Amino acid sequence: MPAPPLRRLPLHWLGIVPFAAFVLLFLILPTMKIVIGAFQTPDGSLTLANVAGLFTSSILAAYWISIKISFASAILGCLIGFAMAAAVVLGGLPRTIRGPLLTFSGVASNFAGVPLAFAFLATLGPVGLVTVFLRSELGIDLRLLGFNILSFWGLTITYLFFQIPLMILIITPALDGLKREWREAASILGATNAQYWRLVAFPILLPSLLGTLALLFANAFGAVATAIALTGSSLNIVPILLFAQIRGDVLGDPHLGYALAFGMIVVTGIANAIYIWLRARSERWLK
Amino acid sequence: MKRLWAWAALIIGLLYFILPLVGMTNFSLKMRRGEYSFDAYAKVFADSRFHETFSYSVWMAVLTILFGVFLVVPTAYWVRLKLPFLRPYIEFVTLLPLVIPAIVIVFGYIRLYNTSSWLPLTGSYIGTDILLVFGYATLSLPYMYRAVDTGLRTIDVTTLTEAAQSLGAGWVTIIGRIILPNVTVAVMSGAFVTFAIVMGEFTMAALLNKPAFGPYMQLLGANRAYEPAALAVIAFVITWACLGLMQLVSKLQKTPQRPV
Questions:
Q1: Which of B107, B202, B207 sits opposite A113 (nearest CB)?
Q2: Whole-angstrom distance between the N-terminal and C-terminal Cα of chain B?
Q3: Is the pTM of this model over 0.95?
Q4: Among all residues of chain B, which has the CA nearest to that of A83?
Q5: CB-CB under 8 Å, B74 with A246
Q6: 3-state DSSP percent of chain B in helix, strand and coil, to 5
Q7: Could you report how far apart the first and last alpha carbons of chain A are, in Å?
Q8: How many angstroms separate the CA atoms of A21 and B162, rounded?
Q9: Per-residue model confidence as pLDDT tens digits over B63-102
Q10: CB < 8 Å to A95, chain B
Q11: In terms of Cα–Cα distance, which of A129, A104, A118 is closest to B19?
């Protein structure tokens, strides 16, 4: 006998009230506050002036360099991570390497923030291990070559430390999903190895690759701690600008801060939407 | 030929990961001129600020884990039992903290709960502590929820609940004495990730002006040379230990615990 639905329905929903209340108060509302604040004047009326205020040369430059660093570290992270994952999954290496590599990737993808910056300063900084070794043993002076850890490339190389492992973690299951039969079918039809990759494997992996690229991009774009610990405030990127703005109203206008944060949500939101969309597409093949 | 390429890719990649770890360890041991020593570690451990911030962050991590367990386990259980059609939506919500940068979330807290608002959490010391715990709980929500939900998949929630109810158990007894013990392994793996996140977190603690470990590391990094490298080694060992324990625990979980 089905119970009368009207009496039972409300009680069902009571069970998720604490969760819903928490998420609303400490995730949704704070984010909404930022989004709405980006379109408000200090006295509460609607305006587009804050968002328009982003289009000054210094803020646009900050967004541009943030996007460039995130993109460079995402592309390099994808390529290197893919090469390492492919080496382990398809390259005929001993299977015992796989487990430790994935475990290490799990740790390294979480080893971001302040300590990561220290590790790279101790390695590629002015008196770092690699810098000193190259100068004293090989006569290569990184500084004369224009390399500086507090720069675009320095930050990109540092970000790779958590980008590559994330790529390995995400792409390994996708590489596992490439079925043996596809390769056999291709070679029976006379395909060379290169043709198999170009016409079969690569198109199947493409959504995963592009999706992960978007995810890595968002991952780097939101990173604050590493950048601040590494460069102080010498590099003008969006998270550092926003941090300084929250700390001390450096822009002199709190609502411009809202707009800055809103811009960050838009960028990471788009990147994540691309990731979710492409992942859904790739699951069709790789399940 | 293919194997050669594979080895080359792997070794070059690993070199990139090993060098910074060697670099920071090496640097942390070089405080005394001309010889290796643990002076930098001794300096760090002797610093009272280290003890204060470290124990503060440990406390915050423990509170965050407790709060997370109380929030996530009943919710995930209830959704599986009574509202399964909500699962995709809840999962989407729990993944949002990965989309919205932490700095944006904490900016929202500061503006929403400032001293002149309806819930002035930033006005008092205890208020900002609560806000920080909630912030950390938000950051760890994606990991915690997924871990618990995966754990619940291995047990038969409906049968267990019906059996308990027919023996006269109430909801608190069911969740506390039947469901929770069955997903302990999953909860622990979520707890280790949460611990690692909280110990290294910088942005939220710095912007809420809390004496946590992350801001302390940043401050020391700006003022000292060798101690930060020692701190980085310590932080890496903590992260490594937490996630190593997590891997170990989730391996134990692979044998599904079906009720007889």
A1: B202
A2: 53
A3: no
A4: B9
A5: no
A6: 80, 0, 20
A7: 40
A8: 28
A9: 999 999 999 999 999 999 888 888 888 988 998 888 888 9
A10: none
A11: A129
